[in-house]
């Protein structure tokens, strides 16, 4: 007999030691214990049970693993490595999802405390309502949907770029010599007037001219092979005009003659598209900055670079004529073409003058001030949008330029403290024309910095979705219709309604607008510029735009 604990009435009772026993006849495969709920469980508490299970394990191993087992094949090893890599990737994604959920939970908890009345003494009600938008950091789509959406967008963008490339090559290579106005030269007109064209020659208006009869030569001897050595780049216009800021520009820099051209891609309806020259092909020079007067070269093209042109030299819309200089910001470049041109060019040098380095240090010093960063971390939306609204109000000439005293008064009004020495250094850099006035958009970007081009692209995409007629302003009624708060964490948790989140957004956005009934592009951009300061990760900021606007 073997002792069995908690056997109850099923076992024989021994009065001497108070334990219960079950008879063992040698036919049981292992010893079992009965707990209080009358369930049999494997017991490994006895030496016999451990020995018996070891024997069973040994027999099982002998049956499943032959002695002459061949070594794994290379195909099996490859499959195992793929399986191992997939498992590691899945675990990595799982860890990222857990981390994102924790981060979203913390943001949601903070926002919930603010919504329930846990006010911070340093923040106003508008600041707290603006911070509710920072909760939109969760991914709006699942992985498969996100991949399909991004792939579709990439395909559409590549088609647009390819259409522009083809149009550029056609425009540069198809020189219409036959219909060129230089065909009707003054000499031919004089000969015709004096009857000197010769017998049997028809007048100019009746003659059918062919390419072989032309008397002029094409101005350019470029071939398709020469034009193929080009750098393609995307750009946008730095402007407060929403219609101009949302123009889709694609430019080309030709290494053969160091010329460049910029085309605008336009879409009319769903199927009709067109690519029109925005900046005609030519050799251009810098109009501002330390390189003013120097021709553009390959080193001037990188993400974030500014390209400046004189507005009167080009056939541009009237909205550009207010400013003598048009500034384009490079948003992306063809990295493969850049690497190829760098390798082929022996003269490529990434020059950076001492003055440029000193200017960059001044900007970083001001943007890195502890007092300034602390002010913007929680009040970024109110400060950026408030300054923009104030600048637009005092800009009586509506040209975007203000004097030094105006900027000092604005900083004082919004409690933004900058040391006097740093302010003077900044002013010397920005006032490169020495006329005593500076564009307030440049001043704001120099003091507070700006979001990178990746973030800016999604801001433009959201605004272009709202301003589908490309008027440059969006009625507040349309914004109310398009804004969706279903995926806000507080709504999903049941701590706030969709209408409460939507009303808080519209209230903070409307506060930054000069006209409460419509939102201009500059006001929309300023709002998300201030919101961007408190978001460290780019994908979190992109999700803040994707969730409510569905882009």
TrEMBL record:
The keyword Calcium applies. GO terms for molecular function: calcium ion binding. Residues 382-417, 418-453 form the EF-hand domain. SUPFAM superfamilies: EF-hand. The keyword Repeat applies. It comes from the Eukaryota. Keywords: Calcium, Metal-binding, Repeat. PROSITE patterns: EF_HAND_1 (PS00018), EF_HAND_2 (PS50222). This is CAYP2 protein. It comes from Pluvianellus socialis (Magellanic plover).
């Amino acid at each position: 007999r073997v002792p069995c604990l908690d056997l109850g009435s099923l076992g024989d009772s021994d009065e001497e030691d108070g334990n219960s026993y079950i008879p063992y006849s040698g036919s049981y495969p292992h010893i079992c214990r009965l707990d209080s709920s009358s369930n049999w469980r494997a017991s490994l508490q006895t030496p016999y049970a451990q020995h018996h299970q070891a024997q069973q394990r040994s027999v099982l191993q002998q049956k499943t693993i032959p002695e002459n087992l061949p070594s794994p094949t290379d195909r099996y090893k490859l499959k195992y490595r793929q399986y191992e890599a997939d498992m590691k990737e899945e675990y990595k994604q799982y860890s990222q999802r857990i981390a994102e959920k924790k981060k979203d939970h913390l943001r949601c908890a903070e926002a919930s405390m603010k919504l329930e009345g846990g006010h911070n003494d340093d923040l106003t009600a508008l600041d707290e309502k603006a911070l509710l938008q920072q909760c939109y950091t969760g991914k709006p789509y699942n992985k498969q949907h996100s991949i399909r959406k991004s792939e579709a967008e990439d395909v559409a963008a590549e088609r647009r770029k390819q259409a522009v490339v083809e149009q550029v090559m056609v425009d540069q290579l198809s020189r219409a010599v036959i219909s060129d106005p230089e065909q009707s030269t003054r000499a031919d007109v004089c000969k015709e007037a004096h009857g000197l064209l010769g017998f049997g020659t028809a007048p100019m208006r009746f003659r059918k001219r062919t390419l072989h009869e032309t008397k002029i030569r094409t101005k350019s001897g470029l071939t398709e092979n020469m034009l193929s050595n080009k750098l393609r780049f995307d750009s946008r216009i730095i402007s407060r005009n929403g219609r101009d800021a949302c123009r889709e520009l694609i430019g080309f820099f030709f290494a053969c003659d160091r010329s460049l051209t910029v085309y605008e891609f336009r879409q009319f309806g769903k199927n009709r598209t067109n690519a029109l020259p925005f900046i005609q092909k030519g050799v251009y020079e810098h109009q501002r900055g330390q390189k003013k007067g120097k021709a553009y070269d390959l080193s001037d093209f990188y993400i974030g670079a500014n390209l400046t042109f004189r507005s009167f030299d080009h056939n541009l819309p009237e909205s550009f004529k207010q400013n003598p200089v048009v500034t384009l910001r490079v948003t992306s470049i063809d990295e493969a073409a850049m690497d190829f041109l760098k390798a082929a060019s022996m003269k490529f040098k990434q020059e950076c003058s001492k003055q440029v380095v000193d200017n960059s240090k001044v900007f970083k010093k001001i943007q890195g001030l502890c007092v300034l960063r602390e002010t913007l971390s929680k009040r970024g939306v109110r400060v950026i949008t408030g300054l923009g609204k104030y600048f637009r109000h005092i800009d009586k000439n509506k040209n975007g330029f203000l004097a030094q005293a105006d900027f000092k008064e604005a900083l004082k009004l919004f409690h933004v403290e900058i040391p006097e020495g740093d302010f003077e250094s900044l002013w010397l850099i920005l006032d490169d024309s020495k006329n005593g006035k500076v564009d307030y958009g440049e001043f704001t970007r120099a003091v507070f910095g700006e979001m990178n081009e990746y973030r800016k692209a999604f801001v433009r995409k959201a605004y272009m979705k709202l301003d589908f007629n490309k008027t440059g302003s969006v009625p507040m009624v349309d914004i109310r219709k398009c804004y969706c708060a279903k995926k806000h964490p507080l709504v999903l948790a049941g701590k706030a309604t969709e209408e409460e989140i939507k009303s808080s957004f519209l209230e903070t956005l409307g506060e930054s607008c000069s006209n409460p009934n419509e939102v201009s592009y500059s006001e929309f951009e300023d709002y998300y510029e201030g919101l961007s300061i408190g978001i460290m990760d780019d994908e979190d900021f992109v999700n803040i735009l994707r969730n409510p606007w569905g882009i």
